[in-house]
Design goal:
It holds the Pfam family PolyA_pol. This is TRNT1 nucleotidyltransferase. InterPro entries: Bact_CCA-adding_enz_type3_sf, NT_sf, PolA_pol_head_dom, PolyA_RNA-bd. Belongs to the tRNA nucleotidyltransferase/poly(A) polymerase family. It comes from Toxostoma redivivum (California thrasher). The chain is built from 21 helices and nine strands. The strands form two sheets. It has a seven-stranded mixed beta sheet. It has a two-stranded antiparallel ribbon with strand order 6-7. Strand 6 and strand 7 form a beta hairpin. The protein starts with 6 loop residues before the first helix and ends with a helix. Helices cover about 50% and strands about 10% of the residues. Among the domains are: about 1-150, Beta Polymerase, domain 2 (2-Layer Sandwich), CATH 3.30.460; about 360-405, no CATH class. It is of the alpha+beta class. The longest helix has 17 residues, at about 370-390. Helix 8 (about 170-180) runs parallel beside helix 10 (about 205-220) and helix 20 (about 370-390) packs across helix 21.
């Protein structure tokens, strides 16, 4: 058996975790770290959040925590067997080992068990099916650690069975592939076959759940390979992607964007040919208003809003921004520059301070322009002059300009 002694593991033992461990030990309930946190620790990464698994039932945990005066928060997870306890300003999510009794491809009815192997068996991928004892002992029933070291993504047991328990696992396969695999295209043929045969199951999964996974895929490695693969195995159509997605443009843009930290929507828009594709995505996945607006903006402006020739390549973007009456135009322009692969211009645009127009109606009244209509016209003319000057003219220059006009 392997025992983990990594500093990331030692660092988990906060006063809160020590107290939790003591309570379980006193009652002889087993407590282990489960799932993603184990995978992270074995990869030398500090886990963001930690799930615990135990042989104690929810009722036993509640009784134990209540007797010890520990605060329990939100009972939402309880019917799935999860209790959340709060100790020393930290939350601990602890789930009873369970077996899926009935699954419908979306959610499962579970019954509790004390068999660690049975619980591991119902998890999705081998790299997510391991447990770690609090003494550092690794419990690994499906060679997850081997797969992690070899950067292999495999389903626990038979791929088709795991997928039919929850069709979202198809996308989780893609997401973890983009996170862990060493190179694109290293899939087991029978895994891809199982995905293809069960692709239709994704039609029944809620858009919100799909979008959470898809966004992570879009920001992971090998995104071009993985999205092309989604089309090959017929899942694209069930997750809101256009039937005839523009895969050439997608390949080009994913290359452009590599080190520019784009938003997921910026990457995805490369597949879209027009605004209907954005609308259809929104209907299926219920994306946020901001995401939808970004998609529409990119589809509309990616062709004609491009850099200027000569010494002022940024000017078209600056002019667009100054003329725009919409909120967060600047962040949309940043995303457009990423989409276009304009790394240098993006830097310059991020450093550019949006100037404010130096003349007000008040200034014009002082100069004797009195009617509101005349003031409006004069301000517009001065704005145009100011724009022509590259936003450099100051108040004096503009007002002397007004005398000429």
């Amino acid at each position: 058996t392997m025992r983990l002694q990594a500093p990331q593991f030692q660092a988990l033992f906060t006063p809160g975790l020590r107290s939790v461990a003591e309570l379980f030990e006193k009652k002889n309930y087993e407590l282990r770290i489960a799932g993603g946190a184990v995978r992270d620790l074995l990869s030398g990464v500090t886990p963001q959040d930690i799930d615990f698994a135990t042989t104690a039932t929810p009722a036993e945990m509640k009784e134990m925590f209540t007797a010890a005066g520990v605060r329990l928060i939100n009972n939402k997870g309880e019917k799935h067997g999860t209790i959340t306890a709060r100790l020393h300003e930290e939350n601990f999510e602890i789930t009873t080992l369970r077996i899926d009794v009935v699954t419908d491809g979306r959610h499962a009815e579970v019954e509790f068990t004390t068999d660690w192997h049975k619980d591991a068996e119902r998890r999705d991928l081998t790299v997510n099916s391991m447990f770690l004892g609090l003494d550092g002992t690794l419990y690994d029933f499906f060679n997850g650690y081997e797969d992690l070291k070899n950067k292999k993504i495999r389903f626990v047991g038979k791929a088709a069975e795991r997928i039919q328990e929850d069709y979202l696992r198809i996308l989780r396969y893609f997401r973890f592939y983009g996170r862990i695999a060493e190179k694109p295209g290293d899939h087991e043929p029978n895994t891809l076959q199982a995905i293809k045969e069960n692709a239709k199951g994704l039609a029944g999964i809620s858009g919100e759940r799909i979008w959470v996974e898809l966004k992570k895929i879009l920001l992971g490695n090998y995104v071009n390979h993985l999205v092309q693969l989604m089309y090959e195995v017929d899942i694209a159509q069930y997750i809101g992607l256009p039937l005839d997605g523009n895969l050439e443009e997608f390949a080009r843009v994913t290359k452009n964007i590599q080190n520019l930290s784009p938003k997921p929507m910026t990457v995805l828009t490369a597949l879209f040919k027009g605004k209907d594709d954005v609308t259809n995505l929104d209907l299926r996945l219920k994306i946020s208003k901001e995401e939808k607006n970004l998609g529409l903006f990119l589809v509309k402006h990616r062709q004609e809003l491009t850099k200027g020739s000569g010494s002022e390549p940024l000017r078209p973007y600056q002019d667009f921004l100054m003329d725009s009456r919409e909120a967060n135009t600047i962040s949309k322009i940043f995303e457009l520059l990423k989409y276009q692969g304009e790394e240098q211009l993006l830097k310059e645009m991020q450093e550019w301070t949006v100037p404010s127009f130096p003349v007000s109606g008040h200034d014009l009244r002082k100069m004797g322009v009195s009617s509101g209509k005349e003031i409006g016209t004069a301000l517009q003319q001065l704005r145009d002059e100011w724009k022509k000057s590259g936003y450099h003219m100051d108040k004096e220059e503009l007002l002397s300009c007004l005398k000429k006009l």
